[in-house]
Every structure is written in C-alpha cells, then in structure tokens.
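Lab notebook: predicted structure, single chain.

Context: the supervisor wants predicted structures on file for every construct in the current expression panel, including those that have not yet been purified. This is the next one on the list. No modifications to the sequence; it matches the entry in the shared construct table.
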Amino acid sequence: MNRDRSGKIVQACRYGPAQLAVDLDTLQSRYRDMHRQPVGTSVMGKRLESLRIGSGPRYVFVNAAFHANEWITSLLLMMYAEELLERQASGEGVINELTVWLLPMVNPDGVELALNGVPPEHPYGRQLLEWNEGSTDFSAWKANIRGVDLNDQFPACWELEKQRRGKAGPGPRDYPGDNPLSEPESRAVAALTERESFDMVAALHTQGEEIYWNYRGLEPPESEAIAERLSYASGYAAVALADSDAGYKDWFIQKFRRPGFTIEAGLGENPLPLEQWPDMYGKVQSLLDELLRIARCS
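Prediction complete. Output recorded below exactly as produced.
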C-alpha cells in the first residue's frame, strides 16, 4: 500500500509477501496492542503471519489468499486490520469485546508466483513450467507452489471433492493433493483453528460478490440469518452451495457446527484489477463490521 506522509493509504499496489511484511512492520510499530505471530510456514519456508487484535471472550477468525491469484484479498484484509487497530486505539466499536485473529496471506508462495513468475534459480521452476503447460505467465495460478489447491485440502468429504475435480496431479488449480492436509499451509490453518476453537470464521476469496454459508446441512440454524445480515450490509448475495466439499469453511462447519462463511469479493475474472479495490474494500469493510457485531452479540 502506498501512503502519504500522514500514513493514509492513497494508492493500492500489487500485493505480495514483501508488501505484506512492510505493512506488518508498519502496523507493529504504530500499535502496541497488535500481537503478531507466525502460525506456520509455507512450502518455501515463508512465515504465515497472523495478527491478533483484542482480548474479548468471543473469538473470530478471518483469512485471505488461500488462492494465489486472489492476492487482492490480502490487501483488503490488511486495510481492515489497520481500521480495527485504529478503532481499538480510540476505544471505538466492538473490537475490545472480541478477540479477532487475521491471517492475511495463507498462500505466500503461490501469491509470489502469480505476481512475479518463476526466476531462473527457483527450486520448483522446471516442475512449475511443466504444470503450467510451458507458459511463463502464472497470473492465473491458484494453487500453492506444489500445485495443490489449498482450499480443496480439508477433511470434509475430501475424497468426493477429489473425484469431482478429476485432476490427476499438480497444476495451476483444483488439484486437492494426495491426501487431506498434505500441505503445510492448510495444516497450519487447521491447527490454528483447532487450537483457538473460533466462534465464527470467514475466508476472503474472489470473485462473484457472494456469501456461502452452508455445508451439507451441518451448519447451525442461525447461519442463514447471519448470511442474510451480511448480505444486507454488503450488497453481496447469500448463496446456499451444493456439490462442494473439502473447503476450509466446509471443514469448520463440519467439525465445530458453528457459523463459517466464504466471502467472494469483487466481480470479473481473477486476478481482479486493482482499479476495483476502493469499491471492494467498502463492501468488505461493511460486511466484516457486521460480522463482528453479530459475533459480539451471539
């Protein structure tokens, strides 16, 4: 994010692991109450950085960039993190009654690949080019650096999803891996979720301006009403999905029987253009504000 002298964001930028590290350092220097810690590492050894804001009794988790070409969701979540920290510092809002965990970039290796391609010395370079059918354009890449779709990795009817996807091996998208939670990134998200036992979760994706809230009838009764409130706040459509398994939201609902949501921000074809970010952020901010209000009162 590009800022003016006061620190206000004036322009968004292509957002990868290097930009995330700079912004985390900036926020950490400004806000003493921001707790920053890695929750794991990626295949390539990049730290999966998390932020914890607040210390209330209700626990909420929001993550972004499971998919590499959806890197703009990391930018949106970091903008929202700064908003929460400002509110906490001023004593405004509901944040002090919650503990909010944010994981802005689940898939840093994949994001870097989608943004920058394969440098000559990359240890997976030959395989990546083969998986990408010889193309050096990785801008549409969704998977992690081993060609596994991290949001098809969770043990919620994973075998059915693998059969439905029909992918024989690694590639740019839709390969669920050889086993559930085979990848360090998905394992780290699952371990954090089990350790903290969140009351509510949301995963930021793109695109479609939709909110997915159900999973095989296992969601709690209040999930649909919550989704409708999020829809009203953001203008996104609340959608009940069928024939979809093995996602983070699916696994969370199956395991905990608590409200979990996949948020599909923006419109168009991934990767979404940066020109959309002001409108996207306004809607995502309204949606997440409503999510926190609901979590506080539930």
